[in-house]
Amino acid sequence: MPPVLRGRALAVTTAATGLLVAALILTAPATAAPRATTLGAAVPRAAATPGKVLVIGLDGVVLDRLKAANAPNLKGLMADGLTARSTLYAGPMAATSSGPGWSTIATGVWPDKHGVKDNTFTGKNYTAHPDFLTRAENAKPALNTYAAADWEPLTSTDAAGPVFSAKADKRLSLKGDRDGYESEDPKIATAASAELRDGNPDASFVYFGQVDGAGHAYGAAGQQYLDAISRVDTLVGRLLTAVQTRPAYAQENWKILVTTDHGHTDAGGHGGSTFQERGTFVIAKGAGIPAGSVREDVKPVDVAATALAQVGVPVTGLDGVPLDAPDSDPFDTLRPALQARADETGIPAGLKGFTHTPPAGWSVDNSAMGTGGVTEWAGWAFTTDEFWTQTQRDQWRELGVRSRDVFAVADSDEWDDKTHTGTFDSTLVTPKWAVTAGSTRSLDFRTHYRHEAGQTAQVLVSYDGAAPVVLKTYTADALAQAESLPLRIPAGATDVQVRFRYSGTNNWFWTVDDVRLS
User: Fold this and answer.
1) With 0-12 CB in 10 A as exposed, 13-18 as middle and 19+ as buried, what is 33?
2) Domains of the chain, with CATH numbers?
3) What pTM was estimated for this model as a whole?
């Protein structure tokens, strides 16, 4: 995070009045050994029960290091709720730094929409893509919103950003960069705990920054980093206690979300494209979230969507989806069948992440496919971001952020890295879907395509087994896009089948995901 300036006094901005009130905040006294504090087991509540949400932002936390730390409160949330690993983009979409990371979490859209590529915030487009507290205020002004942070670009109008706008009813901003996060984080916890316990916030964001500082100073592999996680865990426990001790807690419906903006290398640092730097997570606890659950299809953009849904604000125009949105992508059913590497040496040996066996009803036509080449990518394969992007970094594979969990990939560039004959020419074929003659349907899918002369990428359709006809040909990059192609069902047709044909030799790649008729 870049150096920013701020006084040691707590600053609270009240949106209703525009007044800035300063008050000295004393550091909380030392506490006893950490004690696990988690929200009680979910109990059935009436549909009219008020929904409330607390998003806790922990800067620069590596999930595996959190699991190794003395962190009973965070681990309690994981045991009682959901743990979901996720990944970020890399350049040229954005750096794995705090500006893009928190902007993605707060707005629910990826950097190609919110415009923040680094910590300068140059190109920000918060007007079109505001933070979730601002969205909540715009949709339902009666909601009470609160934000507290000691990295100034998050909440201070005096700094770059701010990520959370002045629309929030209350904002607290301290100067962690100047005065030290180990000093300022407890002040954030004290003020936020009072607000959560004694006030009536419907949607809140509370940030702690000292783990990132420890990562920069000592590296993520060191004991100092674990110690910082433990200290922040104690502060998280104070927030959870504040929620639990609210007078009306038994009549309220709370959802707690914990997330991070980026990872860290073992030696310390972030901003680049390694999987360690791109690693993020979401921990969630609340009604409808199974205890001890683990998911692979959650993304950072889902935090804002989940928070908005929790307080009854329609989730529209976001890349994120609420955590309770159903996952009907057939590719994701392949995760138990994924295999470890065969020819790829840059992928960790124990990581399972590819298969050539399609889901039920799907097929891959390799009748025109060359022979040999790298085993993992010999025709259309089904893979994960963690597996595929580690084949070769900084070739834009990391930009495919709109694919989730398992997706299909045709990668002639990686296939070519081993002796082969012929060219890459493979076709992914959908099941036959029933349609009504004369109707109009939409073929929807997520795509990530990097173009180069000499390769071909086509979407073809066939009705009732007739010869396939070209629906779309890609002639330029289509990076991390959501496609929606209209299908005009001809007279007499009863079914449609779609083909994705990719051909090339040592060119680039094409991925598709979440293919459906709507």
Assistant:
1) exposed
2) 50-310 (3.40.720.10), 330-517 (2.60.120.260)
3) 0.90
